[in-house]
Specification:
The chain is an alpha+beta fold. The chain has two domains: 6-83, no CATH class; 110-164, Aminopeptidase (3-Layer(aba) Sandwich), CATH 3.40.630. 31% of the residues lie in helices and 23% in strands.
């Protein structure tokens, strides 16, 4: 993670914090009893794909049956999760603009076809949703009433949408 800003590195170091259970050159496992219900297992792979950090709750450790602090690897850990019936969501990719690039991006001329959506876009949004597969809708989970919703238009049609919460 050397190419990331110190702020990003510090954030993820805190998120992946806990009591050290196992560590070698390529895999680290931490236990954190304070993880939230929807984040009882988290994995963070370095950008260079040379190391993986994992953090789990004590309940997950018990569920996967890992009680001995012996040799472990990412693949062995993932197999233990699978054997326990624990599936992980697909990867989330972290994109980060360094300050100098962020400034250039913010100063760039705005593209009119990408903008924040609002209630006036309901018809375009409904047409967009009707053309998406059920799997895409489940994976994306974007609703027009989310906190912030942006859309991209091409030839007057909404062709992509994304939302976020604070």
């Amino acid at each position: 993670m050397n190419n990331f800003s110190k702020q990003v590195t510090a954030f993820w170091k805190e998120e992946m914090n806990g009591d050290l259970w196992y560590k070698d050159d390529s895999f680290t496992l931490m236990i954190n009893e304070d993880l939230e219900e929807d984040g009882q297992v988290m994995l963070l792979e370095s950008a260079d794909k040379q190391s993986v950090n994992a953090v789990v709750t004590p309940a997950i450790m018990k569920r996967i049956g890992l009680t001995v602090n012996d040799s472990l690897s990412e693949s062995a850990f993932l197999q233990l999760l699978k054997n326990a019936g624990i599936s992980l969501h697909g990867a989330d990719y972290i994109y980060y603009y360094q300050e100098e690039n962020k400034k250039k991006l913010l100063e760039a001329e705005s593209i009119e076809t990408i903008r924040r959506l609002n209630a006036l876009d309901a018809e375009a949004f409904e047409y967009f949703v009707s053309s998406a597969s059920e799997q895409d809708l489940d994976d994306a989970y974007v609703e027009l009433n989310h906190w912030v919703v942006f859309g991209s238009f091409e030839d007057g049609k909404l062709v992509s949408a994304a939302s976020m919460y604070p």
